[in-house]
């Protein structure tokens, strides 16, 4: 990572996961528990163990659900999503302190976008759902670039590469396997759950978090090290 003062003398950009990070629960898992047929857990386990790619697994999961249930899916997601404490204040903090905030989500547009609508976040990267076939088909508008080994679905490292390391301090906030590749190329990681354990195993520079009050406090400390604000 290099010298801390040098790292934190650049513009900060934050790449924040959605499922299990902004929301208290992973909304894909929540949707699957409610709508998917028995046996979907086998695909979830294959994703987490990296036996199959995130892209293959997520596509397979949603192909189990009939497209005719679209309205029920959207209503269920909006009714059951719980936003992690302090997120609204964190969004406002970023706006007021020249911290660029991107939501980089392996989730799906039909629940990510309406859940985040009250926060008026301009940069949301997520996958898309096509309900025109008999079952749901997932589209990948932010697929891997030629520097990624593929299979991400929504490729967080590819989005990060739009912000070169020589010009930006790149900070990742996340919780799961979908955040691991991004965390490996970040200057700093704020993590919980699965991602926290893996980042510790790999010796990445990080801080744990429980809520977005923790995230805000961590970023305040980093900004004091010299990030332009």
From TrEMBL:
Keywords: Amino-acid biosynthesis, Hydrolase, Methionine biosynthesis. One of its GO terms (molecular function) is 2-hydroxy-3-keto-5-methylthiopentenyl-1-phosphate phosphatase activity. It is an enzyme of class 3 (hydrolase). It catalyses: 2-hydroxy-5-methylsulfanyl-3-oxopent-1-enyl phosphate + H2O = 1,2-dihydroxy-5-(methylsulfanyl)pent-1-en-3-one + phosphate. Coiled coil: none annotated. Pathway: Amino-acid biosynthesis; L-methionine biosynthesis via salvage pathway; L-methionine from S-methyl-5-thio-alpha-D-ribose 1-phosphate: step 4/6. GO terms for biological process: L-methionine salvage from methylthioadenosine. Pfam families: HAD (PF12710). Its EC number is 3.1.3.87. Dephosphorylates 2-hydroxy-3-keto-5-methylthiopentenyl-1-phosphate (HK-MTPenyl-1-P) yielding 1,2-dihydroxy-3-keto-5-methylthiopentene (DHK-MTPene). Belongs to the HAD-like hydrolase superfamily. MtnX family. NCBIfam families: DKMTPPase-SF, HAD-SF-IB, PRK09552.1. This is 2-hydroxy-3-keto-5-methylthiopentenyl-1-phosphate phosphatase.
């Amino acid at each position: 990572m290099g010298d801390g003062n040098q790292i934190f003398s650049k513009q900060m950009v934050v790449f924040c996961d959605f499922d299990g990070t902004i929301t208290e629960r992973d909304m894909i898992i929540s949707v699957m528990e409610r709508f998917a047929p028995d046996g979907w857990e086998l695909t979830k386990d294959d994703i987490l163990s990296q036996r199959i790619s995130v892209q293959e697994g997520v596509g397979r999961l949603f192909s189990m659900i009939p497209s005719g249930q679209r309205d029920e899916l959207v209503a269920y997601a909006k009714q059951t999503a719980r936003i992690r404490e302090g997120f609204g204040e964190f969004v406002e903090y970023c706006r007021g302190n020249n911290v660029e905030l991107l939501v980089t989500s392996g989730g799906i547009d039909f629940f990510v976008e309406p859940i985040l609508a009250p926060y008026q976040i301009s940069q949301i990267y997520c996958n898309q759902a096509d309900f025109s076939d008999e079952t749901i088909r997932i589209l990948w508008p932010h697929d891997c670039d030629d520097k990624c080994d593929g299979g991400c679905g929504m490729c967080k490292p590819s989005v990060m590469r739009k912000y070169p390391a020589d010009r930006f301090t790149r900070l990742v906030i996340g919780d799961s396997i979908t955040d691991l590749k991004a965390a490996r190329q970040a200057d700093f990681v704020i993590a919980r759950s699965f991602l926290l354990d893996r980042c510790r195993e790999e010796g990445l520079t990080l801080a744990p978090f429980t809520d977005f009050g923790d995230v805000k406090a961590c970023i305040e400390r980093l900004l004091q090290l010299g990030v332009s604000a």
